[in-house]
Amino acid sequence: MSKGIYVATIEPNSGKSVIVLGLMRMLLGKTAKVGYFRPIIDNPKSDETDIHINTVLSHFEIDINYKNAYAFTRNEVLELYNQGKSGDVIDQIITKFKYLEDRFDYILVEGTDFSTENSTLELDLNMLISKNLSLPVIIVSQGDNKSVKEIIDNVQLAHDTFKQEVDVLSIIANKVNPKDAEPLKELLQSRIPSNTDITVIPKIPHLACPTVKEIVKLLDGTIIFGKDHLNNLIENYSVGAMQLRNYLTHLKDNSLVITPGDRADIILGALQANISKNYPKISGIVLTGGLIPEEPILKLIEGLSSIVPIISVKEGTYFATNRIGKTKSKIYAENTEKITSAISIFEKYANTDTLADKLITFESEIFTPRMFQYNLLQRALKNKKHIVLPEGYDERVLRATAKLIAAQVVDITLIGDKDKIKERIEKLDIPLNVEDINIVSPTTSPHYDDYVNTFYELRKHKNVNLEMARDAMADVSYFGTMMIYKGHADGMVSGAVHTTQHTLRPALQFIKTKPGVNIVSSIFFMCLEDRVSVFGDCAINPNPNAAELAEIAISSAETAKSFGIEPKVAMLSYSSGASGKGAEVDKVREATEIVKSHATNLKIEGPIQYDAAVDERIGKAKMPESEVAGNASVLIFPDLNTGNNTYKAVQRETGALAIGPVLQGLNKPVNDLSRGCTSEDIYSTVIITAIQAQEE
Predict the structure, then answer these.
(1) DRTGG domain location, by residue (predicted)?
(2) Does pTM top 0.90 for this prediction?
């Protein structure tokens, strides 16, 4: 099941707070521990905190430190985007969310507020965040002063846009004209897929009413009287500028009286009207112009039996009235009456039992590269391993090392001359301290003679003499591999400069394969936009036979599973099902049957074409009964020519991150790199190697 829900609005002033409060109450009735998270908050003033976070955490008594309840302010996000570091935004949001996910059974995530004009960026951000957190979405729209057609068009567009990236479980149309509520719900149900829950909440006037406290904050007012009644709702407001006898006729229920501070007649008349049975109640009085009534008037007010809030503001009557008229009410922690009202309204109009069941039982199939990389990092951190990098002079290797050391995820040994490596680091201005890593030169290492003798003993039956062993141990790949064999390192990553053969040969000579494994193979983790797929074999075996292809498939499925990817194996060929003829398709067909006989619980399909394996529409059209077609996560290529070209084509044309090749079948982890790799590729491959070492 999914461990959370993402509440996203598509426009300003949607009343999203009402929905969040109602959902929180609903979830707490179904789940023991519910957490709350806001990825991005509005820019608070230096002495303020986010109203949404304070309200939810305090009202529901959720044990989350304020700093852990959000990731960024709006300005921080914009600054990172302007620096080209949008990926850092998502990485930090994932990290914060995962921290809460470990502590709570379920997380309610509240999206941005659309409080700026850049609504396109906000919409994209909300989709990107929900996708990378693998969370389904509730879309909230508002119908204030909109026709039914406008609401439906907006909701339809939002639904279709989000649906391209994430699952939409519910749509809530809020603040709808009461007479339009039922027709709107029927029309939405006819336009939106039936598996999407539809809720329509009519406009509730008092929820939109600000309180006196909000006016105090808005106008930076000073409270003179009535601080215990600042939560009074303001349903109307009027200016007291005429004579009292005329002004009294303008009073309405729960009015805010706005008048200059020297109009004692209006002030006292409004207070008297408030306690009279013949006039409406007032919410409070705003005294403008920075004027305070004289002492006798203040004393008279103080002696009244009932006093509403009276505040003084510096602004003149005209400007104060304009600002009050534009006030958008918010729900805040101290206003328990409005919170309780919001929750009851949500419960009245939403089918909470059905919605709760949808949220709690939903299982997401989205697994983004960012989430995959986060999971890798967390696994590697749990049991820190020591990885050797033989190509210590290469810039990409040095930059990857700097990032790995900064993350404190592995211990690193670089092979090379320490002075030369230090010179390279300084020349390239790489933020790496040589004292934080181990640097070793093979022939000057205190282990050199021991390594030479060990290699000689292991290979003398192959006519290797001591001189040949010395030459071999002077080679960085042989030396690095021997470090693993002797337990001085846990794994090795090489190939940024050297060939695959140069990296793999020493491993095959004395690391050797695991018991029961007949063939060393490789996979790439292909990190596509919305999923991570496993491609094998794209680096080692030129033309495997049926038995070898079957072993590659089984090994690749085991690798996928060990890294959190559910293996659904597609045995690729130029035809799907029983239609194809020829030696190559027969080989794939035979390999598929071998896999089925050895791994009976593995989901596998073959032969199958690439498009039918990864495109659900094509897969269901060609192989409607298959549970793999259209949803394959492990793709096994019939030969190296096909696999290597395909992975490179996908990588270049889609911008996918290709992590690997990751070697399978060795007793200790040794992984190869493409000579066209980036420092990011090396970073990811080292982390994968460290995880493989944990499993030895």
Answers:
(1) 214-325
(2) no
